[in-house]
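Lab notes, practical 5.
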Amino acid sequence: MPCASHRVIFVAAAITTVFLVRFLWTQPEYRPTIPGRLSGGVSEALPTLGSKTIPAQVPGGLANSRINPRPKKVQMKPECAKLPLLDDVLVVMKTGVTAVKDRMPIHLSTTLSCIPHYVVYSDLEEDVAGQHVFDALDDVREEVRHKEDEFDLYNRIKAHGRKGIKPIELVEGKGGSGWKLDKWKFLPLVDKALAHRPTAKWFIFVEADTYIVWPNMLDWLSHLNASEPLYIGAPTQIGASLFAHGGSGYVASAPAMKLVSERRNAQLEAYDKMTAEEWAGDCVLGRTMKDVGVDLLWSWPLIQDRKPMTINHAAEGYSKRLWCYPAVSYHHVTSEDVKAIWRFEQDWNQQHRSSSRSSTRLRHRDVFRKFIMPQLQEQRDDWDNLSSDEPITLEAQDDAVDHKNPSPTKAAKSFEACRRVCQNQHDCMQFSFVDKKCVTSRVITLGKKAFAAPGNARSGWMMDRVRAFDEGMKPCGDEEWILS
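Output from the prediction step:
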């Protein structure tokens, strides 16, 4: 009897174990990813970790190989659930080893917080602020990496990690080592993005100083046909080549991406040669798009190459008025800019939560009225509003100035004198007095905190003229999305 009793207990325990294993297997957060057993194609086995996709292995070695065996469910915030196309989009952030620590982390808690599928690429594989950053250049041919001078920085950090970075490289901007290397990332990232999320219908490429207004971006894409080869961005031109400006953000549909990937991999040496000869990687991508018959969908003023603090909101181009169109992207944003724009955008969304989608659409005029105008004032210390007309200097003494009719050559000795110059120009909207130079401007811009010594920078706006500008803007028509 004792033996029989033990057998009953053993069988009961075995049955319980089987049922427990089967139950846990049905729970995604407990199910391990098993490379090589991807039922129904690669896409069905793509787990997620936090707010990023962890790619499964793809035959051919194109995908990144980091696979988390115990992925967690993405907790979708209520405000995110209303956004369209979230599962159809992969956001690809391209940055560099000299900038990633300063620029990328702020996006994790702001612009990327509603995006379930994104990936970050740089020159060095590493973890930054809890986000894994992949190497964008590890698939570039070894011959190219050792031949082209632009790879000097890359080869040093491959050998020595961050110790291979020269101190000057952390502060140099355009024209520096990181900037020169960047052009080599554009075409390889096409393959990497396709491998990272093969089921994506749209691929949105941004940089760490790009700001995307996601409700507008996704709403816009929902009006376009992802089954067509599309290449979308702000038009830029070098010589005869027309292409989407990279830093402003650009979009490619899956068919367009596949056409570029196939062409480049069939003629790899030719496209490496093209990249070596060009100075801009976004131009290389645009030329490749043209080679496969995909023309650029011109997207100004939806997509901007500046930030709202420096944009001329009265600008017109390509038979379009910036004022009336939705705001989709900005460029050259700092981490502080991202925080400020993000707070404003969240307040806007909160205030318009119960309104229809078209009425909640954030337009450039809304950004000017609700974000820019409240920050303008008669005088702002330690501030440069980036007034852009010719500088006005004064070598004469104050007592030589006719204060009733000051001339541009005699009225720039002080901030108040600079204000009088602006007052006497009927179309002057703002002025700045920075390092004893007076500059006026017919364009309204917010500008930025000045780097001059404290007290050596002041800016001012003609507030009555600013209000008159706003009230005098012509009414908008039916401006919406750019679809063709």
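Observations recorded by the TA: Residues 1-11, 17-74, 394-411 have pLDDT under 50 and may be disordered. DSSP finds 17 helices and 23 strands in the chain.
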